[in-house]
Write a structure and sequence with these properties.
Number of strands: 15
Structural class: alpha+beta
Number of domains: 2
Number of helices: 6
Largest sheet: 9 strands, antiparallel
Radius of gyration: 22 Å
Strand content: 35-45%
Order of helices and strands: EEHHEEEEEEEHEHEEHEEEH
Helix content: 10-25%
Length: 302
Amino acid sequence: MSIETRKLGFYYFEFKFYKSKDSFFFDKELFLKLLKWIKNEIPENERVYINQSSKKAMLLYEVDSYEKEDNELVKIKFASCKFNHCPNYISILTGKERKSDKRMEEGENEITHILCSLKKDGAKVVFEERKAGVGVRAVKNYLNSFLKKYLKEKDISPKFTLQYSILPSENFEEILDNKMKRVCSAELFIDKELLGADGLKIMDRDDVSMKQNVIIKCTVEKGKTLEKNLYKKIRNAIHSEGERVKRIRVFGKDENKSNILIDSELIKKIENVNAELNQTNGLVESFSLFEKMEEVLMVDEE
């Protein structure tokens, strides 16, 4: 039996009303209905989302809801592919080249596995992190594009969107509280959308030349320190503003006056698991990976 290590990231899904900074909520029945509506009622060709700039396409591939140990769980699989690229094949046995039979509108199917635990206030998400698949931001954008259509078709009001938050490692809290004696500065990475009409209203429209992340930096006078409650408020903003706050970096000194940097992105909660591979095609077996994701999720919620 062949196995391969897979990296799992942890996130939290919630809904947020339009033009509201803190009106977060969750409706697990609606979330599940949305997924099944996309999968079962939207034709396959209309489920495909195409990103022309990256030459990548994705679609909702499978949805399976079930209960286990009093937990409401949803297995989700997204298919994605890179297209517009058809190089020839080379045999590792002979070194000979042959022409690819792949068409420009086709690509190799890469599956991304997601497991959600549905709760009253949100969905805890275990997400397979891999460059060949799709990321959590792409999944959020994909689901929101269909959520807008779903709310209109079902005449649901007021309107809202799906948001996500990164679940940091417990080490982030520990280092902030116990190892950093003096806080010299803090950097908050926010989505540039927060500067627009639905946020701080600094920009009337999106500036395509601006990077997606904008940095807000808090500094102190020489020898001083940021108040503890201030940097904790900054830290809590990761959750209160959902996925608009992407990352936080805190610079300071430890008890020996040595420099210390805490980066929420570097210590994002990550688990590595081993999953079985299909002997014929070398792809990960979904049943094996979902079993591991279940184990990690159950242990994390104890």
